[in-house]
Amino acid sequence: xxxxxxxxxxxxxxxxxxxxxxxxxxxxxxxxxxxxxxxxxxxxxxxxxxxxxxxxxxxxxxxxxxxxxxxxxxxxxxxxxxxxxxxxxxxxxxxxxxxxxxxxxxxxxxxxxxxxxxxxxxxxxxxxxxxxxxxxxxxxxxxxxxxxxxxxxxxxxxxxxxxxxxxxxxxxxxxxxxxxxxxxxxxxxxxxxxxxxxxxxxxxxxxxxxxxxxxxxxxxxxxxxxxxxxxxxxxxxxxxxxxxxxxxxxxxxxxxxxxxxxxxxxxxxxxxxxxxxxxxxxxxxxxxxxxxxxxxxxxxxxxxxxxxxxxxxxxxxxxxxxxxxxxxxxxxxxxxxxxxxxxxxxxxxxxxxxx
Amino acid sequence: xxxxxxxxxxxxxxxxxxxxxxxxxxxxxxxxxxxxxxxxxxxxxxxxxxxxxxxxxxxxxxxxxxxxxxxxxxxxxxxxxxxxxxxxxxxxxxxxxxxxxxxxxxxxxxxxxxxxxxxxxxxxxxxxxxxxxxxxxxxxxxxxxxxxxxxxxxxxxxxxxxxxxxxxxxxxxxxxxxxxxxxxxxxxxxxxxxxxxxxxxxxxxxxxxxxxxxxxxxxxxxxxxxxxxxxxxxxxxxxxxxxxxxxxxxxxxxxxxxxxxxxxxxxxxxxxxxxxxxxxxxxxxxxxxxxxxxxxxxxxxxxxxxxxxxxxxxxxxxxxxxxxxxxxxxxxxxxxxxx
Lengths: 355, 339
What we know:
The complex is a heterodimer. By secondary structure, chain A is an alpha+beta fold. In chain A, 37% of the residues lie in helices and 27% in strands. Chain A has 14 helices and 15 strands. In chain A, strands 6, 8, 9, 11, 12 and 14 form a 6-stranded antiparallel beta sheet that branches. In chain A, strands 5, 7, 10, 13 and 15 form a 5-stranded antiparallel beta sheet that branches. The longest helix of chain A is centred in the first third of the chain and has 15 residues. The model of chain A has no long low-confidence stretch (mean pLDDT 88). The model of chain B has no long low-confidence stretch (mean pLDDT 90). In chain B, a hairpin with a 3-residue loop joins strand 11 and strand 12. In chain B, helix 1 crosses helix 7, helix 4 packs across helix 9 and helix 5 packs parallel to helix 10. Helices cover 35% and strands 27% of the residues of chain B. By secondary structure, chain B is of the alpha/beta class. The N and C termini of chain B lie far apart (45 Å). In chain B, 42% of the residues are buried. In chain B, the strands form 3 sheets. Chain B has a 5-stranded parallel beta sheet, with helices on both faces. Chains A and B meet through helix 3 of A and helix 2 and helix 3 of B.
């Protein structure tokens, strides 16, 4: 499993070559890239795997999971089934996909952002092998040998070298090419993906999840305009901005929504909320006292079942709102990886009750 | 390699499955028997065991499994039986409770109602074909492309010889006559429409009785405890009844629910929900102090619906007294609705 870029494809090709040495091998990549980019709701990967097994009598099947779901996780968490976690630098992956599809970087970043929480869950599982593109590029034959060993396939060094070449190994020059291609990305796209995706990549290397930044480009305006432009808030209560429908890993989170308000908004009521699985999970109200930049902090929890993307909404809360506002960005900080411990709030109660 | 055996629960499907398994092992070596109704179950087995050789045996093959088998023209053995004696077999031979047997046979009948639409299917009927067991063995061997000698065919055919049809019918009739009127009504309502469908091609209304349903507030998926008698509604707002978790053929359906209410239950309102893969419809029962109430819901079961139909009845507010009984749930398949 991994992001749908050239390195994950190389790993899948290597695995298929290894398996194919003994018997016919079929491949499944799920979900398809076009479905990821358009946020389509698709059957589960297990169902699609079952369909492949019905369709093809091949002795081996290589499954590339780009958004491994809960059902697959339950199976892998059992510790009996080996799998490979292929990690590549997100700039290279975005460049790969942009070059292959011509799709706007914002759309690609949104799709990959929905992959990372799924991949994070599998880090640390007993039968997982984490392989980075950097390591594979430094020694492709060793990478092939590691994959073979992990899946219990015997292979000698010469065969591993030959297979690495046949799988179009990510040699140092190719790796450099990926970095060069990433350098062709527009600066705005690089800033966007650095805020959304790079924290996840660093997590796999360091074990710590840095703040995630959702730039305004990821959001939508109710009036169809660009979120890079100020929004006329004049009028009745209504939603002004919403999005980005990106999943977060489970845990306790704080979202800081940064907004700018013109002086005309003074006295008008606005609200910001967070919605998950169709229900509001956090809300803050803002009544500007003067024009300027405001930050609304909201605490909320994301649980294991929260597989739908999160929605952050900005609304004119009262009738007869006035003035203009602009969305800056949303900063997400994970305070803890686990569910909220009810005992955590004991201090608050004790203080309030003077116990 | 996967081979497929679909069939009604009972000895005939079990025998076909055993023959297919034996033949597959002769052809390709170690082969697992996988009981699976869905594509996901097939995938789980493959991941957990690493095995690629299996006979997939299904008594209620899901819509997507059936579609995949049909799309890829996979060979499949469809082992059909008379639902009446099949029910008797489950109760007398396998120790099923009557309601569980009705649920299994009715669901299987519904899942296999369109077996003719599977292009690679070899359809076998117990009473017609099992007396000629050697021919069945030869047919399955031909489908799996396994050459067999006459002795091998004879050996396989001789295993698990069936009860004579006349004797089996007599046993089933004796069992049937021993059921109470309520048990016969419950069984007939759920299963007989499928018998009529095999005879005429038309599916009469299906009726589900109270005893097929489960207590709604007893935890478990699927629910575990069937109701017995009126269901007490006392307590906070909660699910009182759910079930019967029986597969229906796809299409437009109308559902008519009739309930009787005892004591203070007549003062309450009840929300009724229909669920399969997703919510299909809902309504509110408003008895308005009457001891009987009805509700109708029209719904569409899509071609790819996997999960059985579940009806849920819940209170909307806390209750201190009262009981509810399902008189009948009647389902009639409709012509496609027009806009």
